[in-house]
Design goal:
The complex is a heterodimer of chains A (347) and B (364). Chain A is of the alpha+beta class and 347 residues long. Chain A is built from 8 helices and 13 strands. Chain A has 2 domains: 143 residues, PurM-like, N-terminal domain (60s Ribosomal Protein L30, Chain: A), CATH 3.30.1330; 160 residues, Alpha-Beta Complex (Phosphoribosyl-aminoimidazole Synthetase, Chain A, domain 2), CATH 3.90.650.10. The termini of chain A are far apart. Chain B contains 16 helices and 10 strands. In chain B, the strands form 2 sheets. Chain B has a 6-stranded mixed β-sheet with strand order 4-3-5-6-10-9, with helices on both faces. Chain B has a 4-stranded parallel β-sheet with strand order 2-1-7-8. Chain B is globular and about 65 Å long. Classes of the chains: A alpha+beta (347), B alpha/beta (364). Chains A and B meet through helix 7 and strand 13 of A and helix 1, helix 3 and helix 16 of B.
Chain lengths: 347, 364
């Protein structure tokens, strides 16, 4: 008589994340070999040591970290993985750094579909390639069902700032031009209109994109740019306020020069939201001496991300630390920081 | 964008402003009733563009601002219950109750959700039959039809795990109160366009006649507001105490009959407390007996919760147009959107918040 062993389904063939995927054992190994290594592999990551070891080129080092908890994790125009790479790359780039290396930490919820994880990891790899960074170290933890929402990602990044570049939000001077690289509010409204519970559909896509290429082109042409920021949470309003406060200057912007897509404007009107308060993930605010503004605009216009760039206002000595808008009617109003959450988990 | 751009046209606005200046021969005090109008005026700086002889004062038409403290405290008590999903328009979450707000209740584990319509709340009730879903039904006549519809549909479908915490008020009784006050300085009104869209303006004709004031139903965009102000100035200059509709694309004399029928079916008129103002007789709605099982106050037995206002907050005087927000001693000092003393500093329609966010004229 032959005894046929009754086997459970092979342990490695799960369709969803199991607690064991984060326990450091065979399933953790499988996760590494199946998802992370084939996509992220590079000279520094491949040895799978507990740390990446590398030398840095000459220049000042920039170091930044951000954690991504966006909901939904897949949204029109991107996903949490792309956002996690571009977000940290952009945070380095707006400081004038060339981004080089990233770490990636994942918190996965038990039961999260592995197919979704694969999609996210693949898009992170593509995003890293596009931006010229390497993901050189990483970590994965699994938490029980309900203890996080699907997937959270932390990325930290290191970049190098070339000599001669000195970008800081303290550098604004009266007379500077304020440039905005494109339309406002695309990311925030893409997220908002793709959330459940809002019964209108739109074609709004997130502007989630890397900015390091465009920034390095700007700095090649005008290394003396005073400050750059990417207006993410809190939108352009928050960024302008931070710049005004940090440099103790006033900023005046013109309502009629703020670029905004009709769909985004319509959604903001319907929901009663100020588009200047809505998050962006692929835009730049640049402060530069007025004499150099045209050169910066030329460089921006040559790039896909900067084709709609315009001067939206200027830095003035009046009302230090305040941002004021000249309305279409010729009156003036204060642009304040948004108070509290407009929409949670936007990035 | 259609229906927006033509009503924000700077050229049209300039023409109307010139006409207002030309027609105005003396000092006039005009009140815009609705908080939405206040925000549009301050946000677009319309008050800066008007001639000095036109004084705008801001009215009581901010639903969040006038919702009484005890309704907020009752909401907080209901929202903290384990079996409850508490739903509300977003603005109500930050309004301070006696000790905390709905955000704090949520951070302590309460299931508090922002919805954009009471019908969304009803849908949550359909999807969560094991939970009690409560909607915070605040507002003026504008929100009454949708709130009535939610209750009406719940009754028709036999949905028993849904109820509404009603704090529903009406414009004409508070106008009557203001006009009867010896402190009143208002000579003409911009009536709230969206309230009139529902209720029409027949009732305002009685007020105009009785108190000899012009009343002009007015929209919310800059050109709407300027057209409403111009019309009010013309009526004042000509000494005509009439109602003239300047929001014709939305408002008719009789209002929305279907909406009014539904309100009548579900609600009856009752005395209501107004935050900062006090009790105004026959100034709001409550559920009719036939729909009493949808009354959250009764269902959760919170009618015993009574609350007292902080004496520091002067929002009642702001709401009645007697005090300008920036004339309040606490404005932008003890009272800011981060630490509001009263609801007028919280709501997106509150006059104090409008001044704080867009104006603070002194600094410009």
């Amino acid at each position: 008589m032959t005894i046929v062993p009754i086997c459970a389904a092979p342990i490695m063939q799960h369709e969803t994340v199991q607690m064991a995927h984060g326990a450091g054992g065979r399933l953790s190994q499988a996760l590494m070999q199946k998802f992370f290594m084939p996509n992220f592999h590079n000279f520094f990551l491949d040895p799978l040591d507990d740390q990446a070891k590398f030398n840095l080129p000459a220049g000042r080092t920039a170091f930044s970290t951000d954690t991504y908890v966006v909901s939904p994790i897949f949204f029109p125009g991107g996903n949490i993985g792309e956002l996690a790479v571009y977000g940290t790359v952009n945070d380095l780039a707006v400081g004038g750094a060339q981004p080089l290396y990233l770490s990636a930490g994942f918190v996965l919820e038990e039961g999260f579909p592995l197919a979704d994880l694969e999609t996210i990891v693949v898009s992170m790899a593509i995003a890293a390639e596009k931006t010229g960074v390497m993901i050189v170290t990483g970590d994965t933890k699994v938490v029980g069902k309900g203890q996080c929402d699907k997937i959270f990602i932390n990325t930290s990044g290191i970049g190098i700032i070339k000599n001669g570049v000195n970008l800081s939000c303290r550098n604004l001077q009266a007379g500077d031009s304020i440039i905005l690289s494109g339309t406002v509010g695309d990311h925030g409204m893409a997220i908002m209109t793709s959330r459940e519970g809002l019964s209108f559909q739109s074609q709004i896509r997130s502007d989630c994109a890397p900015l390091n290429g465009m920034i390095s082109a700007v700095l090649e042409t005008v290394p003396s740019v005073h400050a750059m920021r990417d207006p993410t949470r809190g939108g352009v309003a928050a960024t302008l306020n931070e710049l005004a406060v940090s440099s103790s200057v006033g900023i005046e912007i013109n309502e009629t020069s703020i670029p905004i897509q009709p769909d985004v404007r319509g959604a903001c009107e319907l929901l009663g939201i100020d588009p200047l308060h809505v998050a962006n993930e692929g835009k730049l605010v640049i402060a530069v001496a007025a004499a150099d503004a045209a050169k910066v605009l030329d460089v921006l216009h040559a790039s896909e991300q900067g084709k709609d760039a315009v001067i939206i206002g200027s830095v003035i000595a009046d009302h230090p630390s305040m941002v004021v808008m000249r309305t279409a009617f010729g009156s003036r109003r204060i642009i304040t920081l948004p108070l509290g959450e407009q929409l949670p988990r936007i990035c | 964008m259609k229906y927006i751009d033509e009503y924000r046209d700077p050229y049209l606005a300039r023409t109307l402003l010139d006409e207002i200046k030309r027609k105005t021969s003396r000092q006039w005090t005009i009140m815009e009733i609705c908080g939405g109008q206040t925000h549009s005026i301050v946000r677009n700086g319309i008050d800066q563009l008007l001639p000095d002889s036109i004084k705008l004062v801001h009215g009581p038409g901010c639903p969040v601002c006038v919702t009484p403290l005890e309704s907020i405290d009752r909401a907080l008590a209901i929202a903290a219950k384990k079996e409850v999903i508490f739903t509300s328009f977003g603005d109500m979450l930050r309004v301070p109750g006696s000790r905390r707000d709905l955000f704090v209740v949520r951070s302590e584990g309460g299931d508090v959700r922002i919805v954009f319509s009471p019908l969304d709340a009803l849908q949550i009730a359909r999807c969560n039959p094991q939970k009690e879903v409560v909607f915070f039904a605040v507002g003026f006549e504008t929100t009454a039809p949708a709130n009535a519809m939610a209750v009406y549909q719940a009754a028709r479908e036999g949905i028993e795990n849904f109820s509404v915490l009603v704090s529903q008020v009406m414009v004409p009784p508070v106008m009557r109160l203001m006009l009867s006050s010896p402190e009143n300085s208002v000579q003409g009104f911009l009536a709230a366009g969206h309230v009139c869209a529902v209720m029409g303006y027949e009732e305002y004709e009685l007020l105009a006649c009785e108190f000899q004031v012009p009343i002009v139903p007015t929209g919310f965009e800059p050109v709407d507001l300027l057209a409403g102000i111009l019309q009010t100035v013309e009526l004042l200059e000509e000494g005509r105490a009439e109602v003239v509709n300047r929001y014709g694309r939305v408002v008719s004399r009789k209002g929305n009959l279907i909406a009014k029928t539904l309100i009548e079916k579900v609600f009856e008129v009752t005395d209501r407390q107004w935050r900062g103002i006090g009790c105004i007789p026959q100034s709001g709605f409550t559920l009719r007996e036939a729909f009493a099982r949808y009354d959250a106050e009764k269902k959760f037995n919170v009618t015993h919760i009574c609350s007292k206002e902080s004496p520091l907050c002067l929002s009642g005087r702001v709401l009645q147009g007697v005090l300008k927000p920036d004339s309040c001693p606490a404005f932008a000092k003890e009272c800011t959107p981060e630490h509001p003393l009263g609801a007028t500093m919280v709501s997106s329609e509150g006059a104090c918040a409008a001044y704080y966010n867009y104006h603070r004229n002194v600094m410009l």
